[in-house]
Design a protein that fits this description.
Blueprint: H1 2-44, H2 55-81, H3 86-120, H4 129-157, H5 164-189, H6 199-223, H7 226-229, H8 234-239, H9 247-265, H10 267-276
Helix pairs in contact: 2-3, 2-9, 2-10, 3-4, 4-5, 5-6, 6-9
Length: 277
């Protein structure tokens, strides 16, 4: 019995060694397969990418995509606000789309023109993130106030309820947080402005745009009510910020914001190409 037990033990050890050898061989083969696959993907994609990204193409694509999202939101809002059925509703929806497009374009020009004007006149150390944050927040807040006053004027002209102080403060907080967060995040992610037109720069701008869009949405959720109810409604709304934070709505704001900032950053290249033509 001792001899039989010894033979059985020897067989078990041999099988264990065989299994271990097979497992090691399988891992080695799998490792080689993964390495070859990565090498093939790298050679066929990354290896063929140009040394510098096609900034003009990226500017055009993001501009078109951002406009498409804006059109979708405009059409959806106009359709939801129109009344009636059939041809009557279609007519009202068309008028609503035309009005929202004109209004949105004009308000966008006001916002970004004011932001750029103020930003160009504030000089800080661009290598210090907190200085950049202060500059961007101030520029965005002032642009937001101008944007809010124009928005209030339009709402009053349409005889809609609107609070001048509430609208100005709401837009100042919203756009101040948007541009401030974007400038701070971009400064922290990019080592220098020279990386702006690199693949890393594009990724950093997109990431900064996502974060800024989510921060702005989180702020806007608790400040929009002040535009119609006045500043008195701002304190209780902000007090409930920690308990009323719809994450899905906030996250959904990220893609549109990223596309918007990519288009904004690389708009100069697209405009330059159009002027050359």
């Amino acid at each position: 019995m001792t001899s039989a037990a010894g033979d059985s033990k020897g067989v078990d050890e041999h099988e264990a060694d065989t299994n271990a050898t097979a497992a090691a061989a399988s891992r080695a083969a799998l490792s080689r397969l993964v390495q070859r696959t990565l090498h093939t993907v790298r050679a066929s994609t990354i290896g063929q990418l140009p040394h510098r990204p096609p900034v003009k193409v990226i500017g055009k694509l993001t501009d078109h995509a951002s406009n498409a999202l804006s059109w979708h939101a405009t059409i959806t809002d106009a359709h939801a606000q129109s009344e009636g059925e059939g041809v009557a509703r279609l007519f009202r929806t068309s008028l609503g789309i035309a009005w929202q497009f004109v209004r949105g374009t004009a308000m966008g020009v006001v916002l970004f023109s004011t932001y750029s004007y103020v930003k160009d006149r504030i000089h800080v150390d661009e290598t210090r993130p907190l200085h950049v944050f202060g500059k961007e927040t101030a520029s965005g807040s002032i642009a937001g106030i101008v944007h809010g006053v124009c928005n209030h004027t339009l709402e009053r002209a349409l005889r809609n309820p609107s609070s001048l102080a509430g609208t100005a403060v709401s837009h100042a907080m919203s756009h101040g947080s948007l541009f401030g967060t974007y400038g701070l995040t971009k400064t922290l992610l990019l080592d220098s402005n020279d990386e702006r037109e690199s693949y890393k720069g594009i990724a950093c701008i997109a990431a900064a745009g996502c974060i800024a869009g989510m921060v702005q949405e989180a702020v806007s959720i608790h400040t929009t009510e002040a535009e119609t109810e006045g500043l008195a409604s701002l304190r209780p709304s902000l007090a409930s910020a920690l308990t009323r934070m719809p994450l899905r709505q906030i996250i959904m704001a990220a893609p549109a914001s990223a596309l918007g900032f990519l288009a904004f950053e690389y708009a100069e290249s697209v405009i330059g190409e159009r002027e050359e033509k």
